[in-house]
């Protein structure tokens, strides 16, 4: 009888021990090969964004985080990753972002590497499209939700103004509210207390487990993006010469935007705006509003993290395709106010590296489509980013202001 | 407050098995610890309805009191008399809460306050008891056994739907040790097969593939008539796989947990995609539900029509009974156009299938029958079923109207 019991339960007990053992053991991190890192750095995969291992190893080398959203996927020959690879720049971008990754998603998902960025540099492409009345779209947040990164933050949070604000915002998303442990911890922090006791132990155990999962499964990120970078490299001239690049960008872009009047990449136009869809979008953005909402507070979360770690950040505010904006009736005056508000938030706290391209949406071949940088737009970015990253920058002197978390700031356009 | 949704995550299984350990030890030694079993079951049921779900818990208590009143009221009545009118009224009262819960969202666009997770399955059980009392196949019901049957923890949220007498027999009869070890062996196998189904295959189809292919189908909808893109075919198959592996996995968990408690709850699935025709399919898919519908809707409708000679032709009788049967099943899923169309689709499919089977019987000599025709039959059935699940999924509603 006992024999039979063992036959039934033995394998189960053994399997359970093995699984728990593997997940809770302090596994070595394993070295990631150079080619693997190259591919992962441009994969735009949520596994990389929400994971810790790839980012940690990339940042230990010459990689620099480029935070952003959908524009990062516009991998033409002038994309920062292509230029850096082709001309063997001393840096290579680690692309972090995807459609829908707004400030709050970045705030959570970048937790693991923030400590590593002490005294280092970051490039941050901030889209005004994030700054809607709603702010971070909960569905997108859930898609990129990383329990690993959130656990890291939950263990780190002390309950100060920024922590309390973040906890309240995170409770408004769906994914963290679903897990009892997350929810309870967030309530703690929202009440101004760090997570203690059993919850802390549970979070630590979970973090260990998730780190091991990340270490085991981050090997299976699949992406063909590196091929796109390689294809782009082939089109670039041998010498890194601005005028020559500018000319080539114009030539390539002209070829790609033959069949529409908005200066949009033809493939994008055909897929997204063709078949009569464009006509239905005429005037559709007349009521778009980027001046108010929680995104300004969420953005402040990132600013404070950068400041605390003495990270020097180059901000880039990309424009909107001017023809597209005119066609859809986007109120440009309001848009300019939103940009000014954002710049005030940056400048008044001592963030000096801000490249405002928001008025360049009308330049030919600057935008690849409606709201995304391409060709000459990427070259303009490069004009700023290359010197920023290759030359030493004086330390920034930050003076943070918690008022940027408040509803007063979220609802104002009065920036002086 | 701790909240535990049945079979939702690894912790649940751990806590469940820990809670059931004394039950296991007892059964191994030939004893059923009735009080402990009742208490631990209650605890797990309470933990289903804590926190934000407390309203559902209150609804469950109210619902149970309601069914107790109806079933025992009818039992009392049935011991003296047996009028059809009273029986019909009793059944209607018994299904009233479910009807309200199903109709409310269609009318006022928010879920009913009377609803709770598992209301359908409890209703099936209660109605079954009333029907058997009416038929006289059951003479008596006792309070505690009835409550135990209704609130049997492993199956409370989504079945399988057991039958009162079968359940009661298992409960009263403690299995022999070798027999119980056999049950435990099956339980472990089902549990792990369930993990494979629900958390690996269900995840692959439902979480990894389905959103992508749905996105492609939505992106391509303008390029095709009615949005009938190739990706939509993918949606049909991927969704079907997801539906099966998710629900079959869940059912395996429920059966496994029952087995641990020494109750041989009937299985819900028997390789449904190997069905040779639609009729065969319904003998393999969500079996406890389809058998319930067969016994308590299809058969009863058939008898009713024959007894009252409403339709003479027996073929017509079964066709009408199928229509009613599947229409009710459609409405039970929810009052939306796609559930109802799903019901009608299956009724039509099974009627056509019957016509074909009669044709085949008549022309047995002329029609070939070999493994290729069988493969064709399985493939055809599979495609028809997957298409029906596309309707069921509600994705067409998103594709066309949203």
Question: What does the model show?
Answer:
The complex is a heterodimer of chains A (about 425) and B (about 400). With about 425 residues, chain A is mainly alpha-helical. Chain A has one domain: Rossmann fold (3-Layer(aba) Sandwich). Chain A contains 22 helices and five strands. A five-stranded parallel β-sheet of chain A has the order 2-1-3-4-5, with helices on both faces. In chain A, α9 packs antiparallel against α13 (about 195-215). Chain A is globular. With about 400 residues, chain B is mainly α. Chain B has two domains: about 10-175, no CATH class; about 190-400, no CATH class. In chain B, α3 (about 55-80) runs antiparallel to α4. The longest helix of chain B has about 45 residues, at about 175-220. Chain B starts with 9 loop residues before the first helix and ends with a helix. The interface of A and B includes residues 4 and 180 of A.
Structural topology:
The complex is a heterodimer of chains A (416) and B (402).
Chain A (H helix, E strand, L loop, with lengths): L1 H23 L9 H8 L4 H5 L2 H8 L2 E5 L12 H7 L5 E5 L6 H7 L1 H4 L6 E5 L12 H7 L2 H10 L4 H11 L3 H4 L1 H11 L6 H21 L7 H11 L6 H15 L9 H8 L3 H4 L14 H14 L3 E6 L4 H7 L3 H16 L6 E3 L18 H16 L16 H4 L6
Parallel strand pairs in A: 1-2, 1-3, 3-4, 4-5
Chain B lengths: L9 H19 L5 H15 L5 H25 L5 H25 L10 H17 L7 H8 L13 H9 L4 H43 L10 H31 L17 H5 L4 H21 L6 H20 L3 H26 L8 H23 L1 H7 L1
């Amino acid at each position: 009888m006992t024999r039979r019991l063992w036959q039934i339960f033995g394998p189960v007990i053994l399997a359970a021990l093995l699984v728990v053992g593997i997940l809770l053991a302090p596994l070595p991190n394993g070295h990631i090969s150079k080619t693997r890192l190259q591919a992962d750095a441009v994969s735009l995969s949520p596994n990389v964004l929400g994971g810790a291992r790839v980012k940690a190893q990339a940042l230990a080398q010459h990689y620099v985080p480029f935070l952003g959203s959908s524009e990062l996927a516009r991998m033409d020959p002038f994309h920062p990753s292509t230029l850096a690879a082709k001309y063997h720049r001393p840096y290579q971008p680690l692309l972090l972002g995807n459609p829908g990754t707004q400030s709050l998603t970045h705030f959570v998902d970048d937790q693991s590497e923030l400590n590593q960025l002490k005294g280092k540099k970051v490039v941050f492409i901030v889209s005004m499209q994030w700054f809607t009345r709603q702010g971070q779209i909960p569905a997108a947040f859930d898609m990129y939700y990383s329990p690993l990164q959130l656990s890291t933050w939950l263990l780190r949070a002390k309950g100060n103004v920024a922590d309390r604000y973040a906890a309240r915002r995170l409770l408004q998303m769906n994914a963290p509210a679903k897990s009892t442990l997350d929810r309870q911890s967030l309530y703690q922090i929202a009440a101004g207390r760090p997570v203690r006791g059993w919850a802390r132990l549970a979070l630590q155990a979970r973090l260990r487990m998730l780190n091991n999962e990340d270490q085991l499964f981050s090997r299976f990120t699949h992406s063909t993006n590196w091929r796109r970078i390689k294809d782009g490299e082939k089109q670039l001239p041998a010498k890194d010469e601005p005028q020559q690049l500018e000319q080539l960008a114009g030539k390539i872009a002209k070829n790609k935007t033959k069949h529409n009047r908005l200066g949009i990449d033809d493939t994008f136009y055909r897929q997204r705006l063709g078949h009569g869809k464009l006509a239905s979008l005429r005037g559709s953005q007349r009521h778009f509003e980027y001046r108010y909402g929680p995104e300004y507070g969420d953005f402040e979360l990132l600013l404070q993290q950068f400041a605390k770690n003495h990270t020097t950040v180059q901000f880039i505010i990309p424009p909107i395709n001017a023809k597209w904006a005119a066609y859809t009736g986007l109120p440009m005056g309001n848009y300019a106010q939103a940009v000014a508000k954002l710049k005030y938030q940056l400048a008044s706290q001592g963030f000096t590296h801000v490249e405002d391209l928001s008025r360049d949406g009308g330049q030919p071949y600057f935008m690849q489509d409606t709201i995304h940088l391409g060709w000459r737009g990427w070259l303009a970015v490069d004009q700023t980013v290359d010197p920023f990253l290759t030359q030493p920058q004086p330390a920034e002197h930050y003076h943070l202001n918690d008022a940027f978390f408040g509803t007063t700031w979220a609802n104002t356009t009065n920036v002086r | 407050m701790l909240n535990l949704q049945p079979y939702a995550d690894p912790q649940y299984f751990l806590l469940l098995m820990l809670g059931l350990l004394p039950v296991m030890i007892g059964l191994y030694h030939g004893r059923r610890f009735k009080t402990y079993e009742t208490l631990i079951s209650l605890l797990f049921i309470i933990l289903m309805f804590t926190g934000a779900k407390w309203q559902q818990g209150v609804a469950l208590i109210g619902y149970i009191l309601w069914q107790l009143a109806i079933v025992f009221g009818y039992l009392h009545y049935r011991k003296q008399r047996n009028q059809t009118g009273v029986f019909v009224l009793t059944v209607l009262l018994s299904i009233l809460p479910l009807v309200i819960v199903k109709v409310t969202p269609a009318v006022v666009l928010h879920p009913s306050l009377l609803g709770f997770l598992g209301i359908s399955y409890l209703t099936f059980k209660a109605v079954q008891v009333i029907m058997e009392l009416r038929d006289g196949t059951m003479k008596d019901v006792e309070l505690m056994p009835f409550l135990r049957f209704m609130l049997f923890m492993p199956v409370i949220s989504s079945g399988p739907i057991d039958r009162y007498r079968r359940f009661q027999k298992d409960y009263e009869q403690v299995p022999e040790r070798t027999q119980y070890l056999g049950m435990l062996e099956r339980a472990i196998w089902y549990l792990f097969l369930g993990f494979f189904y629900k958390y690996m295959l269900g995840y692959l189809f439902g979480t990894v593939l389905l959103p992508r292919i749905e996105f492609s189908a939505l992106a391509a909808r303008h390029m095709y008539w009615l949005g009938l893109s190739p990706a939509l075919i993918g949606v049909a198959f991927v969704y079907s796989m997801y539906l099966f592996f998710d629900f079959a996995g869940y059912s395996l968990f429920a059966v496994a947990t029952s087995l641990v408690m020494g109750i041989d709850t009937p299985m819900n699935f028997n390789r449904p995609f190997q069905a040779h025709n639609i009729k065969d399919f319904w003998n393999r898919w969500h079996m406890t539900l389809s058998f319930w519908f067969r016994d308590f809707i299809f058969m009863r409708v058939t008898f009713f029509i024959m007894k009252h000679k409403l339709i003479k032709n027996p073929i017509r009788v079964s066709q009408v009974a199928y229509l009613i049967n599947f229409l009710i099943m459609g409405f039970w899923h929810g009052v939306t156009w796609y559930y109802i169309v799903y019901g009608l689709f299956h009724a039509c499919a099974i009627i056509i299938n019957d016509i074909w089977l009669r044709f085949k019987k008549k022309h047995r000599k002329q029609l070939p029958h070999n493994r290729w025709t069988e493969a064709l039959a399985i493939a055809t059935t599979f495609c028809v079923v997957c298409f029906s699940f596309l309707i069921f999924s509600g994705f067409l509603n998103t594709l066309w109207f949203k």
